[in-house]
Queue: 3 jobs
Job 1
Amino acid sequence: MITKILSGNSRLKTDQLFEQLTVQEQEALLGPGVTHVYKKGEMLFRDGGIPTGIYYIRSGVVKKFKTTAKGGEQIFYLCGEGELIGYHALLGEELYSDSAATIIDSQITFIPKDDFVKVLRSSATLSNALLKALGHEFSLFINSITNLRTKSVRERLAFNLLLLDMKFNSSKQSDIASDIQLSRTDLANLVGTAKETLVRQLQEFKREGIIDKTDKTIRIVDRKRIIKEANLLGLNQKKSRSNIP
Amino acid sequence: MITKILSGNSRLKTDQLFEQLTVQEQEALLGPGVTHVYKKGEMLFRDGGIPTGIYYIRSGVVKKFKTTAKGGEQIFYLCGEGELIGYHALLGEELYSDSAATIIDSQITFIPKDDFVKVLRSSATLSNALLKALGHEFSLFINSITNLRTKSVRERLAFNLLLLDMKFNSSKQSDIASDIQLSRTDLANLVGTAKETLVRQLQEFKREGIIDKTDKTIRIVDRKRIIKEANLLGLNQKKSRSNIP
DNA sequence: CGGACAATTGAAGCCGGTCAAAACTGGTGG
DNA sequence: CCACCAGTTTTGACCGGCTTCAATTGTCCG
């Protein structure tokens, strides 16, 4: 399980959807597309909106999230370079069930629905790649739900820091070097906790020498420890209240 | 959103995967299959196992869940009559990321991997039906995650009771008649809480006249109230601590 | 240099988890 | 038909992890 999640691949599996296509197919998709530069914080689409196409991230980072009526934001995925987004609603033939917005300045190509469908119809490769990607995403969601239900904030934070590090640190020079840029609020919404709780937990990790952090940067110092803290096996031995008087 | 989730269709969308296929395709799938009778509580497959085919539920109910190392069980979906299970891992080309077991005595057909793949290759319909189903499942997971993060046990319980009622009560005679059979433990694991907490919340609903229950049966008495309690809009007005002294 | 926003720290209290034990159920055999 | 056991449901008590509210510090820019 651990090996599965943290397997050495520099890129995670879901990222590979687009890469699996032939060059011809990639061009057929991107050809009709319109590339646009998004500033940090711009919305790509909104929960409840009508899907009119999909998006290809040439550079940048996009968060997928859902907003609650009270203004809260639940982030459940971060998309990076080379990933496609927005195809779920299109495939499911329904309205967007989530929103997407850039976290940093990004360059993104919009692929109109018709063009996407055309390639989809003519290419078994795309169809299969999508099935594979969606099948895989399923296991990610399972894990995500299980984590939310059974893990503490500390464990979830450690886990997310690991994922962020693996996904967004191309600088593979050293196990120890890794920087993560993400506002406290975003990180809290990704981990699924209040930002105050998040901050306190970060402090604690720093005090324990597991991470280092400046105002906007988090760096994993002790990789082994943070893997241990993430407790991927779920063996968490709750300090039992058994003082046996 | 509410209308979307609770739309009048007697069956929920995901159930319809198999139904979308032509009769020929259905037969091509089930033809080579082997039907087997499972007693309540039997496992179909286990987290970490190698997928060798998919399952079609002729009758009965199957829970999809994940076990934690400590023995806990996280249920995230209940499959009913006419549904397919186990295709995610096959499509994603990986090991099962979840387990499946019957909740009541069930009649289930096993479709070997090769036969499934054969039909998948030759039929654009199945391929498209799968894409649609998976795309839709995505939105269910989003909702599930959001619910876990932002809703109280009371709200989640109300929501799940509604879903159970809609999905497993073919007896459409009356809005009020509805029986749900599920052990307290299973229900707790479905809602995502401890069974003691669940029991207390059930008591409370009963005391408030929203539901009725005997030892193993739960019946929704006041449908409007329970919809309200589920708080599908997320407008939960937390009793603000503002006593303004 | 102030104004806005993000990050941090402090304090209080509730929700829900855990442990423990009682009440209830159904099934079994004497 | 009753006594008994095993499993499930229910009730009680406790308390700790998180959320929430509030206030302070830090930081980036115009």
Job 2
Amino acid sequence: MGDWEQKNHLINELAEGRELAKQLQSYLNLPFSPNETQEVLVQRIIASYEKALSMLNCSVGTSSPPSLNGSPRSDQDSDPEHRNTRLGKRKSMPKWTKQVRVGPGMGIEGPLEDGFSWRKYGQKDILGAKHPRGYYRCTHRHGRGCLATKQVQRSDEDPTILDVSYKGSHTCNNSSSLAAAAPPPPAADQTHQQPTQQNQSEEQLLMNYFRTGLKVLTDDLHTNHQDNTVIPSFHYPSSSNIQNWQNNLAENFTPPFLSPATSGTSYFSASPSGFNSYQNFQSDQLTEIISSSAATSGTNSPTIGNLDFQFGNAHEFDPHFTFDNPGFFS
DNA sequence: GGTATTTGACCTTC
DNA sequence: GAAGGTCAAATACC
């Protein structure tokens, strides 16, 4: 099935679910609505979403995540994926960036606490950049095979801002502050496919960003001058974790909370317990947009404790907080 | 002595 | 050949 056709099927399926939910809502507003009808509508809504999720699974579930248990060099060299890793071309590794504001006197060598333990393994002068780029990898790369790396480079425009680019995910479970601040939610449904350790770690990291440590840099930067202010943007270049994101969505989105839809724009709200509210979800747009309400609304709300993720069209999207992957569901 | 950092060399991609 | 990313020996630090 072609991508476009598949997306259309997906849209239709989700739109049907939305209409059914609207019907259910209208029935709920009636003083004497028949329970049988409500039950039927619920069943149809569930069936619709299950079908949509099934379609998503079919479209992206064929790829397998890269092995992360890597015995060090020998295996990696024979495996193109690991060879790429060794060569710095992590084509299927999740990648996201953030910008961290540091104090004027702090260098990139200064403490940049993000909850993980990093070891510097290189530094390069980058063409056209005023400042060198530092290369870091997880301290537990060898002991636990953790392939997470990050690059830190001081911004040319504003030396107090560090561009931090993360690649790969932590499989060492060494997150201290992040994990402690926001432990991953318990599995809602054991019948769902359980994430691998790697995927769980990535989800945990991302969720932790969503829920706790992340502070969205607004135009009002001076207001949080004391803090390390981060502007994250996510880049999921390939499919290794799409399955788990879908599962996460499936586990946390609760269609009965549908409310009368406002056209075109869809909102998810991230609460401390995960994604738990839902409006007018158009899944083909899921790939394109996540934005923070703080950024899009221009409000001065630096924390993300109640961050809304907006799944709308790309024009509404704040570039500081992106899943930059056009082929996410294709 | 163990661990972290520095830095020149090496490798791959473009 | 240039550039970016990584390796690994040398060095520094605790």
Job 3
Amino acid sequence: MPSSISMPAPPDRVTVVTIARQAGVASSTVSRALNGDTRISAATRARIAAIALELGYKPDALARTLSGGRSGLVGLVLGPVENPFYVAMLQEVVAQAARRGIRLLVLHLGAGAVEDETMEAVLQYRVDGCLVTSAQLSSRIADMCGSHGVPVVMLNRTTRLRASSVSCDNLEGATEITQFLLHEGHRRFALVGTDTSSSTALEREQGFTRALASAGLEAVRFSGGTSSWMGGYVAGEGIAALPPAERPHAVFAVSDIMALGVIDALRQNGLRVPQDVSVVGFDDIAEAARPTYALTTMSQPLVPMVRRGLDMLLARMEDPALPDEVTLLRGTLAVRGSTQARVVA
Amino acid sequence: MPSSISMPAPPDRVTVVTIARQAGVASSTVSRALNGDTRISAATRARIAAIALELGYKPDALARTLSGGRSGLVGLVLGPVENPFYVAMLQEVVAQAARRGIRLLVLHLGAGAVEDETMEAVLQYRVDGCLVTSAQLSSRIADMCGSHGVPVVMLNRTTRLRASSVSCDNLEGATEITQFLLHEGHRRFALVGTDTSSSTALEREQGFTRALASAGLEAVRFSGGTSSWMGGYVAGEGIAALPPAERPHAVFAVSDIMALGVIDALRQNGLRVPQDVSVVGFDDIAEAARPTYALTTMSQPLVPMVRRGLDMLLARMEDPALPDEVTLLRGTLAVRGSTQARVVA
DNA sequence: TTGAAAGCGGTACCAG
DNA sequence: CTGGTACCGCTTTCAA
């Protein structure tokens, strides 16, 4: 039966055999030549390369993997994208992975639990390694990867699990930004945190609280639930509802997205930022730089974090015996318009 | 050499052969049994299933694919995530794909061009189909997929390419929201568009312009560059700079994210929304519902769109001969606080 | 320097 | 109903 007009026959796959026949050599020779094996004469190598190019040969990644090689696949477990920080992270991971010839297999995205079938994909597709950001139940992924010799690197998340990690020095960062607030003359503080206890949020709270304690101060704590705009907004309403005498000079939110919610809530309730209340966050998401927010925040070194994370992962894909490693990177303070020095009354 | 303490030997892979030996049958029988082939006696099937379960057998997706089956992989090409709409889409795609047992291979993300190596991944990993959202150069992906018999479905993007698509009825939606504005008494309009000509933006502009034309009206056009908050902000500043006599009653932005930028710019310049100017968008991203914006917009039926898109893709993965198909879904008007009826002067 | 052949883990065809 | 076997595309000994 002749093929229909609208469906040009998908061209037959060009394989090592196709090339071997064309070149009049064995398929094994083709394989070696294309992989730059120096035992093959430069002449034959060149000839085979030429034919491969001409025929548009694309090695089958699956077959290659099956016969014992790497899959080139890295599993990706991504946190709640309601927080733009995770979106930025995703973007950076995708960009850098592409540059390194790594393919990303989406294993999970969002706040929910990682499903079982998802976990199985790690084995079924012979994923070489996993990149995990946040996710409450990431420990399950780490466990199963660990027991199957699949290296795992956590981004923006410290852990005691068998896995390596790269994250911002949250404790130090929170300390630094708190000291900045103290230096600016603020003496009454509010802390905006979450109900869920992610390592990230906890460390930041600690840094803040300790820095205050060193100055003999305490903060009132507000929680809006999750690390989201709405979470911050709810907390912000609570702060705005305080009697003027108890109103904080400055608010520290454990994430930028919450800080933005806080700012909106304060303004919605007639308070000015920074004139009445200074607000700071942590992350430095793109929205923080908008003129309407101009959020003072601790900027996470996103690009280096991802680079370091991929380096660590690739190294462990090469040599699975490498010991776990924890890297902390320092953030940098980004001072913008959401804070202002407090004139002593 | 004994294995080290920290590295428990990765357990040997459980294959059909492992099970076959355990059960005292041929591997082909195992394969059939596990695939529910009714020719195998219910008894043997049960027995094999039990052994498989006990041994924790996970069929190797790669081997299965190599021997002629589907890979279960769908390539994902995602648009600029600066626009939260694409993030929401990603989230929905991931969720629904997981539910259907489809694995997503990230091919691209962002505004940039799709790289060559990325395109090759489609063939190298034997991707069963591709899901494409936006992306200027998505045509290249579509081309190469088309010529290799890999079905493509475009989401939120109409096209004349060989590919199917699902999108919101942008023309109709823009018309409807414009008529709403007219009905509310607005007579002077501004249009906020982009420099890049995505089909989506163009159709929305058309719907708006035509609806106005039907009423004998015209709009001043502003462009802030890209479909982003900043793009909207820049356009908004232009609008705010107009002399009061020329100030529009209502602004139609081709996307929510731009509309938010417009609102912020107007307010930053002392104009009130909706009292001085009404603003509408298109998409209904989560941010639009924030009390601080309360954006009136055309809500895209995201969940049904994705469902329909996956349906179409799966159908074509089963039967590649299916003809291309274009589906338009109607959006629904979400009236919120960023618009207000204009009292006739 | 190159060829032949044996897998990798499944599926499917052909027998029996 | 079930077993044997070839094959998917590539890598990798083992020979020559």
